[in-house]
Design brief:
Blueprint lengths: L1 E6 L3 E2 L8 H17 L4 E4 L6 H4 L12 E2 L6 H11 L4 E8 L5 H23 L7 E6 L17 H5 L1 H20 L12 E3 L7 H13 L11 E3 L20 E5 L4 H7 L5 E3 L1 E2 L4 H14 L13 E8 L7 H24 L4 H10 L1 E3 L1 H11 L5 E5 L7 H15 L4
Parallel strand pairs: 1-3, 1-14, 3-5, 5-6, 6-9, 9-10, 11-12, 12-13, 12-14
Antiparallel strand pairs: 2-4, 7-8
């Protein structure tokens, strides 16, 4: 199995303690260096944009009960060089970079090629035989408020009504623009697949009829029995190509964060792109995704492999010496339950015991022996896990101890 690690850098209150940004970053850098020594494969780092605390003051607050910031990292391309400089082995990944905000897919493609250019040049300057990889996970962002300042919001009553559908199609279009520019194509917005709405996009015929009426009233269509409605693009541009041009993509691994099968397939028309998933994703969805990607993975990436689907999983491990295995297990269970209770209170303001217990059951919880058994029961031997130790925890030494326990007591026994 592939043992990666996930860092949320989530600045929120835990047990009445709210760390400063400086304290958060100091702990994070310490943990990444420790992960490097323990030989985790990839350090995946959450990426967030715009302040949750500021947005919380608005009438449409998305997480009104959350105190602090969901995450502090805003740019993996600035952070990665610092992490490469302070480590020896570990590779760096984004989980997940929003390619909609901060200028959209054109800006992100150019920024990424610039990063890769400098990354290669620095390796050559320092005499490194082969640079470590950047694992670029990309998606549309968790919250709409991060995208709205960049013009990604409904522009008409029709778009307002169909927005849940249109959002997904905007990301598909952004994926095409991003990947085509990243691989070095030159094209105009008229050359990309348009955003189209059809009956199959909506849950009911009534919803679709409402959309068609709005289309007629806004003169987007003159036909009563229209089968498709074309939405004007959110990015209009003449023929462009991004620079720098002399860039190799061999030090880049791409992973997309979407459950939409068509977008997963679309991405692989242009470059080899893996797929993110969560530990809570049902097994049938996981296996059907593997099957689909076996058939649609871009041929230049070789054959599809299970490790191309990184999966997050929380870890609550206790290997404390001098106490019984049962006591270790109970301590881990209490820690997991408390972390999830704090999380749901912060996100929703209420507690649902069923949700808490389900979340605990999906995590890796207990002694090393318990966790070995849980991994054997839930995962395949060639899976890639993004182990999450800092979930709702600011105790730097405990997090580092948990990382060590896992790599010394669990990993060798899988």
């Amino acid at each position: 199995m592939k043992w990666d690690i996930f860092f949320s850098i989530c600045q929120t209150e835990v047990d009445g303690f709210m760390p400063t940004e400086k304290q958060m970053w100091q702990s994070f850098f310490d943990q990444v260096q420790w992960a490097d020594e323990l030989r985790f494969g990839v350090a995946w780092i959450a990426e967030t944009h715009l302040s949750c605390e500021t947005q919380k003051s608005l009438p449409n607050a998305v997480i009104p009960h959350f105190k602090g910031e969901i995450g502090l990292n805003t740019d993996i391309l600035q952070l990665a060089p610092r992490l490469f400089a302070m480590t020896q082995h570990i590779e760096i990944g984004s989980a997940i970079r929003n390619i909609i905000c901060n200028g959209g897919p054109i800006a992100h493609a150019e920024a990424l090629r610039t990063f890769l250019n400098f990354h290669q040049l620095e390796a050559e300057r320092s005499g490194t035989e082969k640079p470590r990889k950047l694992h670029l996970g990309f998606a549309a962002g968790r919250f709409d408020f991060s995208n709205r300042p960049y013009g990604i919001n409904p522009r008409s009553p029709l778009e307002e009504k169909a927005w849940p559908v249109i959002k997904g199609k905007i990301f598909s279009q952004a994926t095409e623009v991003f990947l085509r520019l990243l691989r070095g194509d030159s094209f105009a917005s008229k050359d990309i697949k348009p955003i189209e709405l059809s009956r199959n996009d909506f849950r009911s015929s009534e919803n679709w009829e409402d959309i068609k009426r709005l289309s007629l009233s806004s003169a987007l269509s003159l036909e009563k029995d229209v089968e498709k409605i074309v939405i004007s693009p959110f990015w209009n541009f003449e023929k462009i190509g991004v620079i720098p041009k002399d860039v190799s993509l061999e030090n880049l691994s791409l992973t997309i964060g979407t459950h939409d099968p068509q977008t997963q397939i679309l991405a692989n028309q242009y470059l080899p792109v893996g797929v993110f998933n969560l530990s809570i994703t049902p097994k049938d969805v996981i296996e059907s995704t593997h099957l689909r990607m076996k058939q649609n993975y871009h041929p230049s990436g070789g054959a599809w492999r299970r490790e191309l689907m990184p999966r997050t999983v929380m870890v609550f491990i206790d290997c404390t010496k001098g106490i019984s295995p049962e006591e270790r297990k109970n301590r881990a269970q209490i820690r997991a339950k408390k972390a999830w209770e704090n999380y749901w209170l912060a996100m929703e303001g209420t507690l649902d015991d069923r949700k808490v217990q389900q979340a605990v059951n999906n995590a890796l919880v207990g002694t090393a022996e318990d966790i070995v058994q849980q991994i054997h029961e839930r995962y395949e031997t060639k899976d890639r896990l993004m182990l999450w130790f800092d979930f709702n925890c600011h105790d730097n030494e405990w997090i580092k101890k948990s990382m060590k326990w896992f790599m010394e007591e669990v990993a060798p026994r899988i």
